[in-house]
Amino acid sequence: MEITLIGTGNVATSLRPALEGAGHEVRQLSGRKFSPSEVAGDVVIVSVRDDAIASVTDRLRDCTALVVHTAGSIPMEIIPSRRRGVLYPMQTFSRERRVDMAQVALFIESEPADPLLETLARSISQHVYQLDSEGRRHLHLAAVFASNFVNHCYTLSAEILEERDLPFDVMLPLVDEVARKVHTLPPLKAQTGPAARGDRGVMMRQEAMLSGRKREIYRLMSESIYDKLRLTED
Predict the structure, then answer these.
(1) Can you point out the beta strands (E) in the chain?
(2) Which residues are within 8 A (CB) of 134 and not within 5 positions of it... i.e. 6 or more apart?
(3) CATH of the domain at 63
(4) 91: number of Cβ within 10 Å
(5) Average pLDDT of 188-193?
(6) Domain identity same for 156 and 66
(7) Of 131, 166, 201, which marks where a domain is finished?
(8) How many structural domains does the chain have?
(9) Can you tell me the distance from the alpha carbon of 8 to that of 132, in angstroms, rounded to the nearest whole number?
(10) Which end of the chain has a smaller Cβ tally under 10 Å, C or N?
(11) Does residue 67 sit in the same domain as residue 151?
């Protein structure tokens, strides 16, 4: 297919090599500077910041190609074009790392139902699912907990280690094993630690070592873990 890719961020940067590797012809444009006259092809993929999707797609309202965005939490209806859809890759993307798009779950939606979008999705990924905007909102929320919040916890862990001149590398075997465990165990069953054991003594001592936002996060997370496991036992 001939594809116009609008955007130069992390998702767009990862999508382009996957699309070209599948044999598609890709024209990449900046979301801030493109002209509608530059847009051509079978599919237009808008991969810009969530708060820029409305303004970018508004400039494409007369486009006859299939126009899709790549956001998880933005409804398809934000696109004013006659042929519209969503191509949401549920993965974390960074410019510094190449992601194997064939293993990324792609969630698609189109209106009217357009087989072109599924054909495109299946050309770059082995895992393609139909999901409407409401379902995708909940999926994206779950991904925030599973990815963004977890990564922030890594950042807090790194800061605690830095206070004693310890590298974050010492955590990597632990991080890897936690990730491996949830491939075979439900996350609730994989939970360990002082809160899971109900070890109030350790929890109180660790909380006392912290201050400010870290202390608040530690308390909330520990209470959530403790309550979740107690409710399950009941």
Answers:
(1) 2-6, 25-29, 43-46, 66-69, 84-90, 105-111, 127-130
(2) none
(3) 3.40.50.720
(4) 17
(5) 96
(6) no
(7) 131
(8) 2
(9) 26
(10) C
(11) no
Q: Are residues 6 and 118 in the same domain?
A: yes
Query: Long-range contacts of range 150-156, CB-CB < 8 Å, 24 or more positions apart?
Result: 151/92, 156/214, 156/217
- What the block records as the tokens of 85 is 């859809």
| Residue % of the chain over a pLDDT of 90 | 93
Residues 165, 94 share a domain: no
Task: Please indicate, yes or no, whether residues 122 and 20 belong to a single structural domain of this protein.
Answer: yes
User: In the numeric block, which tokens belong to residue 168?
Assistant: 């974050």
Using DSSP, state whether 32 is helix, strand or coil: coil
Structural domain boundaries enclosing 216:
137-233
Instruction: Convert the pLDDT of each residue in 55-88 to its tens digit.
Output: 999 999 999 999 999 999 999 999 999 999 999 9
In the block, tokens 């830095």 appear at 162
Residues 17 and 56 in one domain: yes
Residue 48 has pLDDT above 80, yes or no: yes
**Tell me, what CATH number does 153's domain have?**
1.10.1040.20
CA distance 52 to 71: 11
pLDDT higher than threshold 90 for residue 234: no
Measured CA to CA in angstroms, residue 110 lies from 86, 90, 200 at distances of: 6, 17, 51
Count of alpha carbons within 13 Å of 136, Cβ hemisphere only? 25
**Residue at which a domain ends, from 131, 164, 179:** 131
User: Starting from the edge strand earliest in sequence, which strands make up the sheet with 127-130, in order?
Assistant: 25-29, 2-6, 43-46, 66-69, 84-90, 105-111, 127-130
Return the closest-CA partner of residue 82 out of 56, 54, 63: 63
Helix (H) or strand (E) holding 223: helix 212-233
